[in-house]
Amino acid sequence: MNTTSPKGLQVSTPTDTTIVLTRTFNAPRRLVWEAMLTPDKMRRWMLPPPGWTLTICECDAREGGALNLAWKSEEADPAMTLQGVFTEVVLHERIVHTETMALGSGETIGSLLEKHEFAEKGGITTMRITQTYDSKEARDAAIASGMDQGMEACYQQMDAVLAQPG
Amino acid sequence: MVVDRSPRLDLVFHALAHPARRAIIRQLSGRECNLSELASPLRMTFPAATKHVRVLERARLVRRRVAGRQHLCRLHAEPLKEAMLWTEQFRRNWEARFEALDSLLDEMKSEEQSRIRRR
Fold first, then answer.
1. CB of A70 within 8 A of CB of A165?
2. Pairing state of beta strands A66-72 and A53-59?
3. I need a labelling partner for B101 at 20 to 30 A (CA). Which of A18, A29, A37, A166 fits?
4. How far apart are the CA of B60 and the nearest CA of chain A, in angstroms?
5. Tens-digit pLDDT profile for chain A (166 aa)?
6. Model pTM?
7. B32 interfaces chain A, CB cutoff of 8 Å
8. Of A5, A35, A162, which is closest to B104 when you measure between CB atoms?
9. Are B11 and B46 in contact (CB under 8 A)?
10. CB A57 within 8 A of CB A84
11. Which A residues, 32 through 71, put their C-beta within 8 Å of a C-beta on chain B?
């Protein structure tokens, strides 16, 4: 299943346990790498859900280095945590990390392996993120997690799709 | 949340999780085809192709009709649209982040340029 935006983000589910995101950026890959893996830069684009704040953002992008994020909400601090370890790092090319998300109570809500690959051509970077979940149910839950937001906008877009022949 | 427990959607995603079946869908998006027309570009035996078509039929992505000795297959796109709706919000959430990343990268590029100019 593929969905494509005019800006180019593609989301596909090539197997029962994976999600693949592909996106191009108008910048060399060393800058994309820096923006995605340096804490002060990550804070700029890792937009939390409405009402949430990113409280901890640590990212040590070396093999064996840790990824440590926490969010708080009006109800809970932390509301959610994300912890992982970098397992493979090829500077500016490829980086793999584990990831476990837990609620503030400590209850684990999912774990996955995330691989980022960066390819550069003429100053344009194509990034491919492959998320591999433990099970199909976990993969489906990850996709479904954002479903309650913006359903109306979603349906409006669907109306346009449904209006096309076929 | 209703959609994430839809067994029908499970069938659709299972049906799409095989390259041969995605190829069949692509082929059928052009026109109605018989089973041997579907089997030959896949370099597949007739029974193997038939098996894939059955998976697609169970997901209601393909409808089959018999015309004389031919089994004609036709794409039924409705369940695909439901599956697309399901991934769309996930995509939008990520796209919002990546648009913020676009602006950050523009900033980083101009900072770099002005550093170079100052040298």
1. no
2. antiparallel
3. A18
4. 15
5. 444 444 478 888 899 899 999 999 999 999 999 999 999 999 999 888 778 899 999 999 999 999 999 999 888 899 889 999 999 999 999 999 999 988 888 888 788 999 999 999 999 999 999 999 988 878 887 887 655 444 444 444 444 444 454 4
6. 0.68
7. no
8. A35
9. no
10. no
11. 32, 34-36, 41, 44-47
Interface of A with B in 114-143 (CB under 8 A): 140-143
Q: Do B90 and A19 touch (CB under 8 A)?
A: yes
Cβ–Cβ below 8 Å for A47 and B83: no
Amino acid residing at B99: E
> Would you state the structure tokens that stand for residue B91, as one six-digit string?
């995509």
Alpha carbon distances (Å) from B116 to A125, B109, B111: 21, 11, 9
Residues of A in Cβ contact (< 8 Å) with B29: 166
Shortest Cα–Cα distance, B47 to chain A (Å) = 23
Instruction: Retrieve residue A105's tokens.
Output: 């109570």
CB A47 within 8 A of CB B100: yes
H helix or E strand, kind and range, residue A88: strand A80-90
- Cα–Cα nearest to A21, from B12, B98, B20, B105: B98
ipTM: 0.77
